[in-house]
Specification:
239 residues; mainly beta; single chain; Jelly Rolls; 7-stranded antiparallel sheet; 7-stranded mixed sheet; 2 domains; globular
Length: 239
């Protein structure tokens, strides 16, 4: 297909700092690949594991929508807006950095790792007032179906961002087929497998593989293992 790009898990950028083990789907920090700058408005997709009691000290962001999805353990967050929270698996966190924020992220626990995805999305509005949002979702509501975790709409399920984007999580039994329908014509979809295996159109994806698709109205998927879990990110393809 000329409307697809496949990123196998072992082709990602990798940095192991001891306290942080990070895999980068797109160029980030010391990993620079001119063919991996972004997918549509997704600029960063980092798959991070932080050692017990360790974390990222206070650092700034500006004009970026930043989404954190905890996968295991507990992530402690503090920011310059006065928020101090702990997010767990089932929670979704968002920050609209806008005119500028500073924040820190630490592993809340001293005895186990924390694993989370951090995703940066380029916004459709510049210099908005900084904003923090967090929701707790029911894990059972993504069993054999897609659970919306993010949208452009403040009153929809999940968090919202300044972009015409929709994110969904799903956890499926083996041999469960399902369809994803594009919500906004012209958007593309980036699929990231969290666990297990899926067939997506003619592609076979395993854990931590990524697949971008565009110029399509719907996508056919099927879980090919027990407890197969994935993240689907629909985003505009142009800036």
């Amino acid at each position: 297909m000329d409307n697809a790009i496949l990123h196998k898990a072992n082709t990602r950028g990798h940095a192991n700092h001891g306290w942080l083990n990070s895999y980068h789907t797109f160029s980030f920090s010391n990993y620079h690949n001119p063919e991996r700058m972004r997918f549509g408005v997704i600029r960063v997709l980092n798959d991070d594991t932080v050692a017990p009691g360790m974390g990222f000290g206070t650092h700034p962001h500006q004009n970026m929508e930043i989404i954190s999805i905890p996968l295991e353990g507990d992530l402690e967050h503090k920011d310059s807006m006065g928020n101090q929270t702990i997010i767990h698996n089932g929670d979704i966190q968002v920050m609209s950095a806008g005119t500028g924020i500073q924040h820190s992220e630490f592993n809340h626990n001293k005895d186990k790792e924390v694993k989370f995805l951090q995703i940066w999305v380029l916004p459709n509005k510049q210099n908005v007032s900084p904003r923090y949002g967090q929701v707790s979702l029911k894990l059972q509501d993504r069993h054999n179906k897609l659970q919306q975790i993010l949208s452009p709409n403040e009153n929809d399920e999940g968090v919202w961002i300044h972009q015409e984007a929709w994110f969904h999580l799903g956890k499926f039994d083996n041999a469960t087929p399902f369809t994803y329908s594009i919500k906004k014509k012209g958007n593309g979809v980036y699929i990231f497998v969290l666990n297990g295996a899926f067939n997506v159109e003619q592609y076979q994806l395993l854990s931590r593989d990524g697949l971008g698709l565009w110029n399509t109205d719907s996508i056919e998927l099927e879980a090919k293992s027990a407890d197969a879990e994935l993240l689907i990110m629909e985003v505009p393809m142009g800036l």
